[in-house]
Amino acid sequence: MTLFFFIALLLIAVIALYEIMSMVWPLQIEKIWKVLLSTLLLTAAFKEVIFRYLGGKMFFAPLLPRWLILTGALMFNFFVLALFLAVLKDVIWLTWKFCRALGMTSRSFPAGEASLFAAAIALFLTLYGTWEAIRVPDVTVHDVYLPGLAKEFEGTKIVLLVDLHASALNRKPFIQSIVDKTNILSPDIILIPGDFVDGPVEERKNDLEPLSTLNAALGVFGSSGNHEYYSGYEEWKKQLSKYGVMILENEHVMLTSNDSNLVIAGIPDQQGANLKGNGTLSFEAPNVEKALQGAPNNAPVILMAHRPETVKKNAQAGIALQVSGHTHGGLMPFIGQLIAFFNGGYIRGWYNVGTTNLYVSRGTSLWSGFPMRLMDPAEITLFVLHSQEK
Description:
Number of domains: 2
Number of helices: 13
Low-confidence stretches: none
Radius of gyration: 24 Å
Largest sheet: 6 strands, mixed
CATH superfamily of the largest domain: Metallo-dependent phosphatases
Shape: elongated
Mean pLDDT: 92
CATH class of the largest domain: Alpha Beta
Distance between the termini: 61 Å
Order of helices and strands: HHHHHEEHEHEHHEEEHHEHEHEEE
Number of strands: 12
Helix content: 40-55%
CATH architecture of the largest domain: 4-Layer Sandwich
Structural class: alpha/beta
């Protein structure tokens, strides 16, 4: 056991103990029920540790039945939300105690009722947020104006899918539903910039097989995300090619119509380069200059980059549009601000970086470790291209 892992376990235990004392023990119920609820909270707190031992070495992709993963997710999601509500409840309790000391009220704080109310809110938000996380996403539509876009590409439809995270939670029927909803849009181009899957090819290729039925007149293109490297990137690159997804790794393709061009480029996720020196295969680092070698200067470039924080460097290469994911939109208030901090401040939606437009998708799905979405729905994104002059 590493020191980091031990510290993490200790921190989880402290948080669980706080929640038990704040949310469970004040309840006006028999002690045996308090012990049972405390045990459930402790189980929820250590869900990832339990799944790690039950579901194999890939902690982010446990080999467990879907119903068990979903049950664990509900418990862990409640544990996270209950923490925020416990803190809020205790702030109110301290304020109440201060007011009572000043003689502003003589009533004692209704600790039991407050705990029950907070738990009820946490349960409601857990059920809603988990449902929002696992349902088939809606389509969002954006008109995109690209300088230099030739009239031949006016009205071109591009669908962005990202963070599919095929796993024991997101199985084949779910991926098929996303594919069916995408094909109804009749896209010209489909872009998938990373995090296709959680788990190795032999376990998850069937779940991603629906990608082979994607229909796009000008092609289906992808780039790697960090989870591909956890899951066996070389094998997945070959498998995705069999499904008709062209992976662009510091590469581009040029779409041509009547001597007019549109460039689609992709850079790999930096996780591959981070593996160097760890006794595993080393992969290329993202290199936008290499990706654009040989591309015509007068053609607008659309770049797939899994992580949005690369946009400042990429903008210097004259990218017209960068599409990214990775942040899952922030998942929920408070946590979203933390995720934005680790991603250059980019979390969801549109950003202007110099002359480059960046779109950060909220993700088409998310990984099974924390399937929670509050005020942050998943999306299938449809871009309709227009010239700047329109």
